[in-house]
Design a protein that fits this description.
Helix content is 18%, strand content 32%. By secondary structure, the protein is α+β, with helices and mostly antiparallel strands. It folds into three domains: 88 residues, Roll (Nuclear Transport Factor 2, Chain: A), CATH 3.10.450.350; 107 residues, Nuclear Transport Factor 2, Chain: A (Roll), CATH 3.10.450; 114 residues, Distorted Sandwich (Glucose Permease (Domain IIA)), CATH 2.70.70.10. Strand 3 and strand 4 form a beta hairpin. The protein is globular and about 85 Å long. The relative contact order is 0.09.
């Protein structure tokens, strides 16, 4: 007979505690290991719908697309009625993308998406036997872009090839070049005054689509240093209506009463001269204007606000438009292939409005726009005169302008470039001096 020795109560408790501790230690080691499972069989889910994408062909209608897809007559009529609530089917452009969404089984149509533009899609959905429509807008977000660079040859390459803009589509980078040209066109002619070593820096806001393209945008602040001279432009909208403009650090408008040229980024093929050898007549005669070469059909802008006083053929100049501006100024545009929308005698035009298109009418040996600028009947060289300035920041808005311009110049100063000094002072609202005449020389 085996006798088990008796343990005192403290020893029993100690033994139980040790056993419990060992069990916890073993349990923690086991639970810390990830469970081992075998490979799982893939699960294949059936698609929720079957897609068919078609593009509207030349002369084809939306109804014909539905008919060709064998959509029933009742559905066709209901679809067209629902579509008309958002858009006109007769105004659908060639190439419009139409996505037919079918149920995965059978020939029942589930929905139709009609892409009107990059920003709007009409979505048509079936609700039992009735079709309904909704206008879906492409979502966007707003961001601010900072970029600076140096010019080695031409501004176009300096912007298009800038690594900081590599994520922007090429058409958006081209738009940035266009913005710069429009803002600085009164200070720098980017077609002939750019020099190696010039530099730029700018900030702009943009609305970005999911695909990375830009819906809209505009410069906030910009600088271009041309041959050592910095030119700066700051966006300011006194009325908060989106119709603002650009001013320099002193609050003076960078805009002038006249554009330097009627065609942005165009090449000068012939300058103003009192004695020029005519390329066709081979005789020496005065050339009272500047020729801007461009392909046939290139839009031509009015260089100032004014009224059209002539729009017809006129001798060697072919199709000609004349615009009368305030204070005796007249601008002339010759050799046009055609006139802009609504351009006729008596039409009021705004600066940068399209008034015609480059052509070869009249006496010319190549497509270009002959541009003249006259004051009180006297022809002047458009490239050498001091053009009258635009209006400065209104005195009543100077307080807000000072704050906003300081913020925007601070953004610009975060980029590499020359230091920015503020020298603007609040103009005296009670000053007896009269404001500058925007029509002066």
């Amino acid at each position: 007979m085996i006798q088990i020795p008796r343990l005192s109560p403290p020893l029993v408790l100690l033994g139980l505690a040790g056993a419990l501790g060992l069990a916890l230690l073993v349990g923690n080691q086991v639970s810390s290991r990830p469970p081992e499972v075998g490979p799982l069989e893939p699960v294949v889910a059936a698609p929720a719908e079957r897609l068919e994408v078609v593009h509207l062909q030349v002369g084809q209608t939306f109804g014909e697309v539905l008919q060709r897809a064998e959509v029933g007559w009742s559905d066709q009529n209901s679809l067209l009625l629902a579509f008309r609530e958002q858009a006109n089917p007769r105004r659908m452009r060639d190439g419009t993308r139409i996505t037919l969404r079918w149920y995965p089984e059978g020939d029942d149509l589930r929905g139709v998406d009609v892409t009107l533009s990059r920003d709007e899609t009409v979505r048509l959905l079936r609700d039992e036997a009735v079709w309904s429509s909704d206008l879906v807008r492409t979502p966007v977000w707003v961001d601010t872009v900072f970029v600076s660079g140096a010019v080695e040859s031409i501004l176009w390459n300096a912007v298009i090839d800038n690594p900081a803009l590599a994520d922007l589509p090429s058409r958006d980078r081209a738009l940035v070049v266009d913005w710069m040209d429009k803002v600085f066109q009164w200070q720098v002619d980017f077609s002939r005054q750019v020099r190696e070593g010039d530099s730029y820096r700018l900030t702009f806001e943009r609305e970005v689509r999911p695909d990375g393209s830009m819906r809209s945008g505009h410069l906030i602040a910009a600088e271009y240093v041309n041959q050592g001279t910095p030119y700066r432009a700051i966006w300011f909208d006194p009325n908060d209506d989106g119709d603002g403009t650009f001013y320099d650090e002193e609050g003076k408008s960078v805009r002038r009463a006249f554009l330097l040229k009627p065609i942005p980024l165009s090449r000068i093929s012939s300058r103003y001269s009192n004695a020029r050898l005519h390329p066709i007549l081979n005789t020496v005669r005065a050339h009272r204007g500047v020729d801007f070469a461009a392909p046939v059909g290139t839009p031509i802008q009015a260089t100032s606000d004014g009224v059209v006083v002539y729009a017809d053929r006129k001798g060697d100049l072919g199709k000609l438009v004349e615009i009368r501006a305030p204070n005796g100024w007249v601008s002339r545009y010759g050799h046009l292939s055609g006139y802009g929308p609504g351009i006729r005698v008596g039409t009021r035009v705004r600066q940068s409005q399209i008034i015609g298109y480059v052509g070869m009418t009249g006496l010319t040996n190549g497509p270009h726009c002959h541009y003249e600028l006259r004051r009180n009947g006297v022809a002047l060289d458009p490239l050498s005169i001091n053009l009258p300035p635009g209006d400065p920041v209104p005195t009543s808005d100077w307080g807000r302008w000072a704050l906003e311009s300081e913020e925007r110049l601070t953004l610009l100063a975060t980029l590499p470039g020359p230091p920015i000094l503020r020298v603007a002072e609040n103009p005296d609202a009670d000053s007896s001096e009269s404001p500058p005449d925007p029509g002066g020389d």
